[in-house]
Amino acid sequence: MESSIPVSAKSERRWRSKPLQTSKPSLVLAFFSCFAWLYVAGRLWQDAENRTLLSNLLKRNTAQRPKFLTVEDKLVVLGCKDLERRIVEAEMELTLAKSRGYLKNRLPENGSSSGKKFLAVIGVYTGFGSHLKRKVFRGSWMPRGDALKKLEERGVVIRFVIGRSANRGDSLDRNIDGENRSTKDFLILEGHEEAQEELPKKVKYFFSTAVQTWDAEFYVKVDDNINLDLEGLIELLEHRRRQDSAYIGCMKSGEVVTEEGKPWYEPEWWKFGDEKSYFRHASGSLVILSKNLARYIDINSASLRSYAHDDISVGSWMMGVQATYIDDNRLCCSSIKQDKVCSLA
């Protein structure tokens, strides 16, 4: 009976049963597709929640933060508070200098260590290797021993001016200390390092230390290659007594040396204008300042700028005050004038 079924009917039955055999893999594939869709949808929903949370936090922080920075806030952010404080302190120091340091008829009464008022304090520059020069000076124009004390009774103090060694307490310092115990004619600048490149700062230390130590009408800086006519200098200073704001010397100016390696080279030559010439100043061989100008240097020593040469440095400091420039040819030590009070040693 089975064999009586036509062949076409058998093949049709086989064709209809084939989809029933492949339905399970399709269901598995559909299940995994739904699972993947649910996973991706969950991640997208979670990311959307995170973005919403972050957006809310950002809005809240933005609302709490000031919309603009005040000047005070900017100073704090930029770290300028300390600079602002220093500017205020500098202004206060300048006010103090104007009221006490150099204005006429308003000078402080700073007594010297001895309580005596002097006509002049003369500082003679010297160095560690200048022992023979000092011996020559003590045997010529510079008094020594009892004669030095008698000169001080007349109102004139003379001291060799020197700093300290870079290696504090070494043989250089010990030799100077020993020489000073014997001669008692040194002014030792404890805060200054004695070196050639530090000479512009030495003049600042000298005037500052001298005005703190002795109460004098004038303070005189002399190089160690200069012979003085001491009586002639005293006579010159006597004539200038009670002359406030006196800046006395052999006044000059000159070309600024811009080429490195040449004598008198000025590293900051570009600060002196297009013509490259120095302002008017007293020659460094011998510089005289009245008491109020020396006091000005003392009060403002921390802020006074030094250049490559000490005479240029002093001249720049005098430009900022009401100094009276006195050009005296007798103080031109290299000239051939007969009545000069100084000469090259």
From TrEMBL:
State the Gene Ontology BP annotations.
arabinogalactan protein metabolic process
GO molecular-function terms, A-Z: galactosyltransferase activity; hydroxyproline O-galactosyltransferase activity
Location(s), subcellular: Golgi apparatus membrane
Any single Gene Ontology cellular-component annotation: Golgi membrane
A Pfam family reported for this protein in Swiss-Prot or TrEMBL:
Galactosyl_T
EC annotation from Swiss-Prot or TrEMBL: 2.4.1.-
Q: Which EC class is the enzyme in?
A: transferase
What residues does the DUF4094 domain cover? Answer: 23-99
Sorted alphabetically, the keyword list is: Glycosyltransferase, Golgi apparatus, Manganese, Membrane, Signal-anchor, Transferase, Transmembrane, Transmembrane helix
Give the record's membrane topology: Single-pass type II membrane protein
UniProt cross-references to PANTHER family, sorted A to Z: BETA-1,3-N-ACETYLGLUCOSAMINYLTRANSFERASE (PTHR11214), HYDROXYPROLINE O-GALACTOSYLTRANSFERASE HPGT3 (PTHR11214:SF124)
Protein family per UniProt: Belongs to the glycosyltransferase 31 family.
| Record-given protein name | Hexosyltransferase
Tell me the organism's taxonomic lineage. Answer: Eukaryota, Viridiplantae, Streptophyta, Embryophyta, Tracheophyta
